[in-house]
Amino acid sequence: MFGYIAANKPELKIREYERYHAYYCGLCKALKQRCGRMGQLTLSYDMTFLGILLTSLYEPHTLSRKERCIVHPGVRHVTAMNDCVRYAADMNLLLAYYDLLDDWKDDHSFKGMFHARTLHPSVIKIRAEYPRQAAAVDEYVKRLSECESQANLDIDHAAGLTGAMLGQLFVWKEDEWEQLLYSIGFFMGKFIYLMDAYDDIEEDRKYGHYNPWLGMTGDEDFESKAENILNMMMSECSLAFEKLPLIRDRELLRNVIYAGVWAKYTEKKKQRSTEGRQGNV
Fold it and tell me: What is the pTM of this model?
């Protein structure tokens, strides 16, 4: 999973945080219903955002109630559950499954392969229920592998593969909101790919791994170029988002788009700047 689409919790109001946590718990419960405890291990904030976004747009009947869980057995938490959250859980499992297979391919992780096998029966059902989304992930895995093997340094091409895949996953129903939801997922997906690559620049250079940023890191103004590119991705994402007729949880979703997704970038940029100053001493 990506790990970048999360809220900036310090900036959330108490009520907004409680709503955010309720969706997170709902996603966890949906994963358990679909795939047991092993499904819960794939829980991420990425698809929590998708569940909230679709809930805000489609306003399905949502069941909210206090429940205990294995992680916090002594405290009852509010859990929000609806069809949008269940869809987000299915997309969560679909992505996690291929991520685990990728771990096996890259690192021969037996733990990853075992986990993937436990998810496989549920993933078969998800693929049958959502063939369009499954096909998008299949195409993504294939084309990204080709891109990496060819060491394609066209940064827009590499990022666009993740964008196209996530765009399809953001489209729950093929209706009047399809294009806007696709655009949100597309540009958020591009941002996520580029942010993940930005985070791994030093490690990828050290071990000779593919990273599309490496063709630019020698530029004197690399940091400003990288920030401008990332800003463009989220500007396009927010432009599509603001066109949706959202009411409930709108500010919560804005927190993620305008602040939350930037948390790791800010942290990494600060770290890189500090290490650069120390290297010049």
Answer: 0.93
